[in-house]
Structure formats: C-alpha cells, structure tokens
Amino acid sequence: MEKGPALLRQLQSSTSQSSASKPGPSGRPIAARTSPTAHRARKVEYSPDLDGKADPGEIVWTWVAYEEDPTQGKDRPVLVVGRDGNTLLGLMLSSQSKREGERDWLAIGSGPWDGEGRPSWVRLDRVLDVPESGIRREGAVMDHKKFDVVAAKLRADFSWS
Hints:
Blueprint: H1 3-20, E1 33-36, E2 58-65, E3 73-84, E4 87-94, E5 105-109, E6 120-123, E7 126-131, E8 135-141, H2 144-158
C-alpha cells in the first residue's frame, strides 16, 4: 500500500516534467522558422481590417521559439508585415529596455498590445513565419504613423517596396 502514493508522486513528477519541455501550447502551431528580412522582401503597406484574418499593421500574439533553443520559447506579440498564403510574416516585439539603441531593434513606443503600457521595440533583421492557425486573435492595431516608420526602415535597409 505504501508504494501507491510514491508511485503516484513519481508519475505526477514525470508527467509535469515532460509537458514542461514541449515547445508550445499543445494543438497550436508555433512560429519556429525565421528568415533574414531581406530574403522575404516584398511590398509592405498598412492594411489592418478586423475581418478575422490578420493583416499588415495588426499585432497578434503567438508562440515564438527561441533562436538559441527551438525547443523553448514564449508567447509574444508580433507585428504582421505581410502574408504568404496562410503564413503570416511578422516582426517580433519586445518590451525589454535593453533593446534601446541596439542596431536591429526599432523603438515604437507603447500601445494596446502591452497591458502594462510599457514601451516596445520591434526586431527588424528577422522575419517570423507565423502559421495563421497559430495566432491568438487577442491583438491590437498599430498606429498608422508607427507602422509607416517600421515600413520605411524595411524599405531603406532590407529592400522591401
């Protein structure tokens, strides 16, 4: 009888460890593939339309795998800058102030995508391929002027049109 509770604890421990190592929420595709921004160059224009599909200018939340360890990651906001079929092209956002002044990060200020109103930065040098089925519809629309600043950097530095 004493082995029962010990066995149960062992099973619970092994179950919690295996689920913690999964790369994202079960059942939802993750944004694991990135490309250099110049390799995904295309026309970029502000066109948010709250029609149930994510469009350029909208910020969506999705699970993003870490570059240094693709088995790990976190749910984070992503600025949609384009589309390739059912795959969204997105730029990762960060609220970490250490991004200030970093070459590949552009300050975009605060917005409704951050519940705490913290300033954010957008990463310009890597485009995430985000499966549309992997996003949460809890997003926001970026201010048109802020989007234009991001688009101008994509055009000037990464050959977007």
